[in-house]
Amino acid sequence: MTDDHPLVHHVELWVDDLALAEQQWGPVLTALGCAPFQKWENGRSWRKGGSYVVIEQSPALRPGGHDRMRAGVNHLALRAPALAHSPSLRSVALSVGWQERTDTGQALHLVDGQGFELELVYDEGAAA
């Protein structure tokens, strides 16, 4: 597959608080080389190559919040070869409210203010 046709077309995360999600996800996705892609009343997206990430506060959202330990998506893992291990990306994430869950030596795991986990994989060779 080429970068124009990656396996994942897009990932859409439904959030309880769009403003908080935009404040936390926007700077991190931008630091990963994503560019703002779409913006509408209930959502935003950022794109890199042929894939994009959407955050949306849908009117159809059921109450209860996100719990990564329930059935469904546990976390989102993105490639960040040189960036995730760098102090600058970690600083960007922490400055906008992400919490560092762990750094495994292969990936940095962050959790946002609504409980979504983002894994930034910087060393794929060690996991192979």
What does the model show?
By secondary structure, this protein is α/β, with parallel strands linked by helices. It contains 3 helices and 8 strands. The strands form 2 sheets. Strands 1-4-3-2 form a 4-stranded mixed β-sheet, covered by helices on one side. The protein has a 4-stranded mixed β-sheet with strand order 5-8-7-6, covered by helices on one side. β6 (99-103) and β7 (107-111) form a beta hairpin. 20% of the residues are buried. The model has no long low-confidence stretch (mean pLDDT 90).
Main traits of this protein?
alpha/beta, 128 residues, 4-stranded mixed β-sheet, 3 helices, globular, single chain
Q: Tell me, rounded to a whole number, the average pLDDT.
A: 90
Note the total helix count.
3
Number of strands: 8
**What structural class do helix, strand and pairing data support?**
alpha/beta
Helix proportion: 10-25%
Strand adjacency order, main sheet: 1-4-3-2
- Strand percentage lies at 25-35%
Span from first to last CA? 19 Å
For the CA atoms, what is the radius of gyration?
14 Å
Largest sheet: 4 strands, mixed
Low-pLDDT sequence parts: none
Overall 3D geometry? globular
The topology string of helices and strands comes to EHEEEEHEEEH
